[in-house]
Amino acid sequence: MTELSTSGAAPGEPAVPASPATGAFLDVRDLKVHFPTDDGLVKSVDGLSFTLEKGRTLGIVGESGSGKSVTSLGIMGLHTAGQYGRRKAQISGEIWLNGRELLSSDPDEVRKLRGRDMAMIFQDPLSALHPYYTIGKQIVEAYRVHHAVDRKKARTRAIEMLDRVGIPQPDKRVDSYPHEFSGGMRQRAMIAMSLVNNPQLLIADEPTTALDVTVQAQILDLIRDLQTEFGSAVIVITHDLGVVAELADDILVMYGGRCVERGPAEKVFYEPRHPYTWGLLGSMPRLDRDQTERLIPVKGSPPSLINVPSGCAFNPRCPYADLPKDDVTRTVRPELLEVGSRHSAACHLSREQRERIWTEEIAPKL
Amino acid sequence: MAVAVMLVVIVVVVFCIFFLIPQWTGVDPATMYVGKTSDAAAVEGIRQKLALDEPILIQVFEFFKGIFVGRTYAAGGDVTNCAMPCFGYSFRSEQAIWPVLTDRLPVTMVLALGAAALWLLFGVAAGVLSALKRGTLWDRSAMVVALAGVSLPIFFTAMVSLAVFDYGLGWIDSGFVPFGDSPGAWFQGMLLPWVTLAFLYAAMYARITRATMLEVMGEDYIRTARAKGLSEPVVIGKHAMRSTMTPILTMLGMDLGALIGGAILTETAFSLPGLGQAVLKAINERDLPVILGVVLITSLAVIIANLVVDILYAVIDPRVRLS
Question: Where are the transmembrane segments (chain B) (predicted)?
Fold first, then answer.
């Protein structure tokens, strides 16, 4: 069973305007998602907190296995829905959406929010769309779960949405199967399906990873346009800093299931205060960089989520792990501390050390 | 159309091979038709009657012609008529094959279809439940039962079920009774054969269903279905089942096709007068015409079943549809 948090509105209680403490539209507090396995407890997300307002876009970045997707599925309640068998995900913390706590809510109530108040776009639209049903049928289904309308009306709505996301001849294409669409068209159809109910929260999980580079920009433009139009809150999950640079107002950098740095996009890009963020920026190709210059990878591999390194999870890969005194990086887990306005990072290096390393060693190489 | 041509070609090829087998084995087919004890004159008579000294293609042609216009076997003054549709004539039992087939085939078909209904119902249901309750006690026990079902030979389960339910508990009065005589007794007689045959197949179907279902439930489009806000019964019953049914239908087509050829073990164990029993008897008596007729029916059934599966495939999976 899901481990329920004690606070929050009782199931079925009418929604209050916003979560009590911050009043944010989306308020995730100390979210933990653990999976029991034969090898031990996998701590995919281990104490993540963030807030998001309507009309804003949050970019969550991190490498594979950092807990990005697990976080998004957690918000959608998809770890508890459709969980069968003996082993179930253990989820704790609080997720407030529009004044309603989701983890303590009745799963069926959360199901009714899914697709209506919060929707999701997945990475690979070919595998995320059912191969045996037409695009139209799948959109109609998504609409009719939450609206008591007949098929004809829903179909009209589906065509309208396909038109809105830029699919040519939507009245004909509505009867096509996913395999008859190109990759970009499929992702557009997927976006049409997720937006068919005007959700206030849209989670895009690696929305452009499976697409051609030329199509990527179009899809990102589309997401941005739709957000301006609908004024929804958007979470973009990606390992591609280019995508967040394009879309995000705020950036949250995840490492080993925790947030290591978060802040406004320009701060995280131009004044990053965590060695892992430096590593990510260093491994990103840039047009203004000399072609002969090599990208700098982050050395080592992602941490085991079962035996997370003690202290700072990044310490085995961090080139500066020995700078702080008393081996503190290997024994004490760093807190997420303010380093500027709305900008915080979890690192044992002193502010001065980090400012110096960034301006003298890292920034010139980027 | 191409499929129809293929069908005819396959049937003819299967059949030619069958005609050739006696020659390959070096046994005089005339002797096989009439029996070893017969005297030389009788053998020679049969040879002429069946045109066994003609080239093989003529023999095949004569056989197929017989299906459509009937056939007259004549040697000297001895004339045997085989009315249309003539699927051959057994000189051992002195009867035409077609009535044997029409007599036997319904029993086999009822056995196969009834068992198929049972194994689909229970096998698929058990497989789905096991997949949904993966790793639980239910799952493990269901899979142990399924393993037993697959491993236990049908003559064993048949004997055990007969011993327990008929001779032991006396709940069921087994033994075949034609439907026309007494539907109730017929049903009682068919019950154990159905269940026994279904047990074997249900076990296989449960395992396949479970494996497929588990695979399908890990698909991205199932997660999408949940993300849309669909309730779990719709996610499983509609989205997951649609994909799970594909391999099950393929198997069903093949299995039904094969079973029409005669569930020899089941029919023998329960003394059901079906094709399987007929062919077993024919093999024991080296009654070639009967075997020939059954082989024809069987290959037809398998080909038709495959055809139906192909068509169903296209209905289920739009990606298979031809443009």
Answer: 5-24, 109-132, 144-165, 185-204, 248-270, 290-316
